[in-house]
Specification:
The protein has 1 helix and 80 strands. By secondary structure, the protein is an all-beta fold. The two termini are 48 Å apart.
Length: 895
């Protein structure tokens, strides 16, 4: 345990009659039970120091340097666990950790302190495989693990300790460089060894789950190319056969250069012969869903055809002419992974691909051409730095490991993480000044970030109150809003087509009249198809985009497009008033927050009228989709708080229960300090009990897909444990003790949970994690955002599983299938809205989808974080995968 000090600073300033003051008034909150001193200029200042113990490796940290593990030796192997943690095998330690050979990294890139394995010094872990029970197989050039003799192969428990019951009869007599698991639990090992447990086994062996030899498997003897023959890679096929790659020129006397296929008994498959160029080696293999095999290595010909170092073959071993890399990489390929969209990421010793500069790493399309959307910049390391291993995360990000010490010119010692579009995960920097105010934040599907607020320049360029940032926080110059909005932008909602809705207190967008609401195209120009006439007559505070394209509006208005509408209204997708929606706000003086349920009903929170509530307080109600009040929802006298705006946040959980947050001390007469939960019918949920929860108001909250809740506000302690300004609660309201923050010097007033699980925060702070972060920061959570989009073997059931720190969805996702028949520009088939299942969403098609040779599936929904006035955000959440419909492997179905 280590200790560190966080300093907290609160300020209050009288509201001035300026456009920025209205937004700022929601960022600086009332201070109670504190010592406050007055300074010049009407500024009140409170400073307090909080000391608390924290296990740093489990901390939520400011995304200052990105994923930066500081591995101090070459990396040979990478493997991603189901929980998003990454196993790294290599030659030395990580950072200052006293570990050698293998380490486990948290999703933040920090060392996992709960994993401890010590391989004998000056040794190397070259292969890592994770079993379904969490145990870890390692192979390499070592003779001891945790001080116990283990030659070249060992198994670790999930915490890194040695499994002493594995391979008790002995092990290999030389390097194990490849390890793979069969579906039946048996273990394939390959390398330069010639015996296992004292018996002759030349370079390949199969073991039972306990590490003893499987005598039914006999692969014969590998022939020598030059030096010692070795196996580098296994590819286990669904029908029980296996493909091996490595350095060899024969198997049991039969000519096979670099690659061979075996039956499940270890017998060589004589029908699979690629006839690679002499002295070739195959280091990388991957299986496509149609049964075709991708291979990378040193070869330059295949069956007499020139094909440089990367190729695709059919399941019978013939070259697939549909994969044409041109001149290909100029040096060998050592690793490759398939991405969900069918494209590849490759790594190796090359410095160019098809004549273009690509330094040791590149993206490749499904047809072999370069993937220009994968923008890696100057690549990994310098000439001679081998990129040895690549692993794909569930969120689409890519881990790379090898000899390099820089990526795209930025220091990254031997391990780095790339985004799905190839950019280095290099951290996030705020481009704003201390005088700026940040309101709504919305992440677009390409990872860029649209930000609204009150500012005039960003990154040295004119940007009036709306800007788009790259994932690094730098200015995205391709988003050019002209003169922008002429006053505060406080709410944003991104659409699936890249356009973004913005609302606030402005009258014009790029010189064109837009009454408090507008829509910008992806390039930032005004979308003239969304034309309010004239819009609202009062400031807009919130937007909710419905799946049908209609837009719910929340604000201080009394008319919309010239028609009477008080505080809540709905527009059609062209900005015309939706006359089928009239909100019944009886019992409310004004609204403070709203949320959309999966069934289309609308939750609202606001101040009670005096006729309903005896004293100033807030209440919750539910409207039907047409705006009438839902009488099935139990309405109580609501919350009691120290002021009239005590309920500022609503969020709907997957089970329909409703979280409320703000600055209150009770709900429906029951003690609840600043957070409570209602049942789906509005009744008080006594099972959610944060206890002494928060010492001050909650300004923002975001739901994770695993049911946990992130809250931000003025508080300094949570459930009796010190938490400053940011905390995470378990699904029952108790404190998540694994979640610590590295500190901010001001209150967060808005938050947005990115699809990759990182947390964007906006507010009145200037420091985050001890670094300068004016008004916006990003935090890396200690757990991974997990998700998978799959289809069953019959092509009828589509499932989208989501967990960990992934943002919870606001509405049921819609699943679409798309394909491109010959001569067509593309066809999209909408299967419909998916239904909630434990851990995710699912939809069943009445008949198997079989379109062309492949089709793409995309699930689309929205996520919304509940925040105080002036910090509303909504973002699109999508996942895509390619489905191959040609059946070459599976006799009873297809995948």
């Amino acid at each position: 345990m280590s200790q560190f000090v966080l300093k907290r600073r609160y300020s209050w300033k009288p509201i001035a009659a300026s456009p920025g003051a209205r937004l700022m008034s929601h960022q600086n909150h009332r201070i109670t039970d504190r010592t406050v001193r007055r300074f010049s200029g009407g500024l009140w200042l409170l400073a307090s120091a909080v000391i608390f113990a924290n296990t740093l490796a489990h901390a939520q940290i400011t995304d200052f340097a990105g994923y930066n593990s500081n591995v101090n030796g070459p990396v040979y192997a990478l493997a991603v666990q189901a929980d998003g943690k990454a196993l790294v095998g290599g030659t030395s330690a990580v950072g200052t950790q006293a570990q050698s050979g293998i380490v486990r990294l948290l999703p933040t890139g920090q060392v996992d302190p709960d994993f401890s394995a010590l391989i004998n010094i000056s040794s190397t872990v070259e292969a890592v495989a994770v079993q379904s029970d969490g145990q870890i197989l390692i192979g390499g050039n070592f003779i001891a693990v945790d001080g116990t003799a283990k030659s070249f192969l060992a198994r670790l428990h999930a915490d890194g300790t040695l499994d002493t019951g594995f391979a008790t009869a002995g092990s290999a007599n030389n390097d194990v460089s490849a390890v793979a698991l069969q579906p039946d639990g048996k273990i394939l090992i390959g390398g330069s060894f010639t015996s296992y447990a004292g018996a002759a086994h030349n370079h390949i062996a199969r073991l039972f789950a306990d590490g003893s030899i499987d005598p039914s498997f006999n692969s014969g003897t590998l022939g020598v190319i030059s030096g010692v023959p070795t196996i580098e890679k296994f590819l286990v096929l669904p029908n029980g056969t296996m493909v091996v790659g490595g350095r060899f020129d024969s198997i049991g006397g039969t000519s096979r250069v670099g690659i061979a296929r075996f039956f499940s008994t270890g017998t060589l498959d004589l029908n699979f012969d690629l006839q690679l160029s002499a002295n070739a080696a195959v280091y990388a293999l991957a299986l496509q869903m149609d049964g075709n095999i991708l291979l990378g290595g040193q070869f330059t010909t295949l069956r007499g055809t020139v094909i440089n170092r990367i190729a695709r073959v059919l399941d019978n071993g013939t070259l697939d002419a549909g994969f044409n890399p041109g001149t290909g990489p100029n040096a060998f390929v050592h690793s490759l992974v398939l991405r969900p969209n069918g494209a590849l990421v490759i790594g190796g010793m090359f410095t160019s691909y098809a004549g273009s500069a690509y330094n040791h790493v590149a993206g490749v399309n499904n047809d072999g051409t370069i993937d220009f959307s994968f923008t890696i910049g100057t690549g990994a390391g310098t000439s001679g730095n081998l990129l040895r291993s690549i692993a794909l995360q569930a969120d689409g990000n890519v881990l790379i490991g090898g000899d390099f010490v820089t990526v795209n010119g930025i220091t990254r010692n031997h391990v780095a993480r790339l985004t799905a579009n190839g950019l280095l995960d290099g951290g996030f920097a705020s481009p704003f000044s201390t005088a700026d105010a940040v309101g709504g934040v919305s992440v677009q599907t390409d990872g860029t970030i649209v930000v609204g607020g009150f500012f005039s320049t960003v990154g040295g360029q004119s940007r009036k109150n709306i800007v788009r940032l790259l994932a690094t926080g730098s200015l995205d110059t391709s988003f050019a809003p002209g003169t922008g909005a002429d006053s505060v932008v406080s709410a944003l909602a991104s659409q699936t087509d890249g356009r973004v809705l913005l609302a606030g207190d402005f009258a014009h967008y790029n010189g064109t009249t837009r009454g408090m609401i507008a829509r910008a195209k992806y390039d930032g120009t005004l979308d003239t198809l969304f034309a309010p006439t004239p819009g609202t007559n009062g400031q807009m505070l919130g937007l909710l985009l419905q799946p049908n394209g209609k837009v719910l509006l929340l604000g201080g208005f009394t008319t919309v497009n010239g028609q009477p509408r008080q505080s809540l209204a709905r527009m059609n997708s062209d900005a015309s008033l939706d006359t089928t929606f009239t909100a019944d706000l009886s019992g409310f003086d004004y609204l403070q927050s709203f949320a959309l349920q999966a069934d289309g009903k609308i939750l609202i929170a606001g101040r009670c009228t005096d006729a309903v509530c005896v004293m100033p307080s807030s209440r919750v109600a539910r409207l039907n989709s047409d705006g009438t009040q839902d009488n099935s929802f139990t309405v109580t006298t609501g919350v009691l708080g120290p002021d009239q705006q005590s309920l500022t946040g609503l969020a709907v959980q997957p089970d329909g229960r409703i979280l409320i947050a703000g600055d209150f001390i009770s709900y429906a007469g029951q003690p609840r300090l600043r957070a409570a939960r209602l049942l789906s019918n509005g009744a008080f949920d006594s099972s959610f009990d944060p206890g002494t929860l928060l010492s001050d108001n909650v300004n923002a909250m975001a739901l994770q897909a695993d049911g946990r809740v992130i809250v931000g506000g003025n508080f300094g302690s949570t459930s009796g444990s010190t938490r400053d300004l940011l905390a995470r609660l378990n699904a029952d309201g108790s404190l998540d003790s694994s979640f610590y923050d590295d500190g901010m010097d001001g209150t967060p007033s808005g938050m947005s949970l990115q699809p990759d699980g990182r947390l964007l925060l906006s507010g009145g702070f200037t420091l985050s994690g001890g670094h300068s972060y004016n008004k916006i920061t990003r935090k890396i959570l200690p757990d991974a955002a997990t998700q998978s989009l799959t289809v069953n073997a019959n092509g009828t059931v589509f499932t989208w599983l989501r967990g960990g720190s992934s943002p919870e969805l606001t509405v049921p996702p819609v699943l679409e299938c798309s394909y491109h028949p010959s001569g067509s520009g593309g066809v999209i088939i909408t299967l419909g809205a998916m239904q909630r299942i434990p851990g995710g969403w699912q939809i069943t098609s009445t008949a198997p989808i079989r379109i062309d040779n492949y089709f793409n599936i995309t699930a689309t929904s929205y996520a919304t974080a509940a925040s105080t006035f002036g910090d509303s955000s909504q973002q699109v959440i999508q996942s895509s995968a390619r489905v191959i419909t040609v059946d070459r492997i599976f006799s009873n179905g297809w995948q």
